[in-house]
Structure formats: structure tokens, C-alpha cells
Amino acid sequence: MKKAFTLSILLMSVSLIFAQPILVSDSLHTGSAFNLYSLSNVNTANLVASGANVTWDISSATATLAGTAEFLDMDETPYALEYPAANFAMKFSITGMPDSYSLFNHTSTVLEEVANNVGTSGPVSFLNYRTSLVFPFTFNLINTDSYQKENQNVKTIINNYDGYGDFITNTSTNNNVVRININDEGNQSIGFWSSSPLAPVFQASSGGFILWKLTSTTTGIKEKYVNRLFDLYPNPATSELHIVNKELISRLDIYSIDGKFQFSTTSAVIDISGLTPGVYVVKATSKTGSISQRFIRE
């Protein structure tokens, strides 16, 4: 009887563990489109709760359509060559403003910002990318990361998955929503994300409140963030970088981390002895597309 009781408790514990939504890389897809709403009359007291199985209710807020957003592959933007380290883009079309892009490096372990405000008069590039999400992102995980914008000092961002539950608006209830508490060099904000598909639901910051409403998603999604083209080693490297291709590669292009072209090659063993020490990007191109990886030249 004692064994049966113990097993029952164990099964209950496992059930509770699996009830916690986990943010994973392959749930973030290109092809998704959203309407963006600016909210007023938000009851902020209903947003502060953290923990398990929380209900966040902003159904009394007033929503005004502010624009749209899209998740794109880089080759669907005008900036693929200018930012070879990016492989995922968010396009923002805000009423009365020019289209702008936030560009990311999306891998199996991280979504990190390469540049933002691209397409405007004040684009921002990161010398050391800023982490938006880590994968898998599990309940109570705190990620601390350093980043650096061009012409600025190194800063720190802390992303804390501190709650999950239901997010209620005046039109819908979103289940299995994850709350990310963000401290970006002392600037506090909160992001709420759906776990499947992985997409923003709501953002609260000193700049205001933005509601994301998914309007469409494409089937047959491209998965460029999964590197199906090549591996490389060693990393860091001093003189030679070895490429192990998973399908036929037509060209390898080497860029500095700030996007400046260095050279091209078709060799599986790349001589990098002529590069000055630092962080670089190797971009592989095949008939199915292209993908980039960073490496360090010591």
C-alpha cells in the first residue's frame, strides 16, 4: 500500500512538472503575422503576480490598433547581405512611421538580437548580441547576459521566467502563457509569451503596453535557425577552421562580426591565419538556402 501511495505521489509530481510550459527553439517560426494594439486603462495590479498557474486579466483595457508585425526569414528582408549573422527578422509596420526591422540570431539555444530599428534613420547594431530568450526556457530559470551596442559600454540584461498561466484580454483567453521579467541595465519590463507557437502576447514597459494578436501563420515553415548545412571546428581556432557539411555547399563567405566581408572560399579547410583575432561569421550557401555560424579567431 505504501508503494502504491508513493507511486501516486510521484505521478502527481510528474504531472505538475509537465504542466509547466517550456519555451523551445523549434516553436519559433517565420511566416507568422500579428496585429499590434496599444493599450490604455490597463490595470497594472493584475500584471504583477508571478508563480505557477497565475491568471493575468487585462480585459478592461482599451485597445487601439497601432500597426502590424511579421516574422520573416532574412532573405525576405532587404538586409540579408548587410547583416550576415542574422537569420531571423521581425518586421514592424507602425502607423505613421517607416517600416523597421529587428534582426536576430536564432539557434537551438538562444534568440539574440543582432540589430534593431533597421530601416529607420537610427539603426542600432550590437557588437555583442543581446539575449532575448534562451532555450529551453523553463520555470524559475534566470539568464544573465552581457551585451554591447556600437559606440556604447558593455551592459547586462537579466531575463527571468518567473510565472506561467492564463492571459485574458477583452477578446480571448490565452493559455500556457509564460511571463518573462526583464531587467535591462536597470530598465524593467515584462514580456508575456505563448509557448506554442512561440510568440509574444503582451509587452509592458515604461514606453507603454502593447498587445500582440496572431492573425496568420504559414504552414510548411522554413527552419533556417536549425543548422542543416554544416558544423565547424575547432572553435575558437587559431589558423584553420574545418567545415563538416551536411549537404552540398556552393560557397563559404567570411565576415567580421560587424558585417564587413573578408573573403570567400569553397574549401572545407579554411585558412584563417590572416584574420586578426576576434569574432567572425562564416556563411554557408547551398541550393536550399544559406545559414551562418560565428567563430572566434584567437
SSE layout and pairings?
Layout (H helix, E strand, L loop, with lengths): L1 H18 L13 E8 L10 E7 L4 E11 L15 E7 L5 E7 L3 E9 L5 E11 L7 E8 L4 E15 L4 E12 L2 E9 L2 E8 L2 E9 L13 E4 L6 E6 L5 E6 L4 E5 L3 E3 L6 E9 L2 E9 L1
Parallel strand pairs: 2-9
Antiparallel strand pairs: 1-3, 1-13, 3-4, 4-5, 5-6, 6-7, 7-8, 8-9, 9-10, 10-11, 11-12, 12-13, 14-15, 15-18, 16-17, 16-19, 19-20
- Give, in order, the helices and strands: HEEEEEEEEEEEEEEEEEEEE
Strand content bin:
over 45%
Mean pLDDT: 87
Q: DSSP helix count?
A: 1
Strand order of the largest sheet: 1-3-4-5-6-7-8-9-10-11-12-13
Count of folded domains: 2
- Globular, elongated, flat, extended or rod-shaped: what is the shape? elongated
Summarize the amount of helix as a percent range.
under 10%
The value of Rg in angstroms is: 21 Å
Number of strands: 20
Distance between the termini: 62 Å
Instruction: List segments where confidence is low: pLDDT < 50 over at least 5 consecutive residues.
Output: 1-18, 219-226
Structural class: mainly beta
Biggest sheet record: 12 strands, antiparallel, barrel
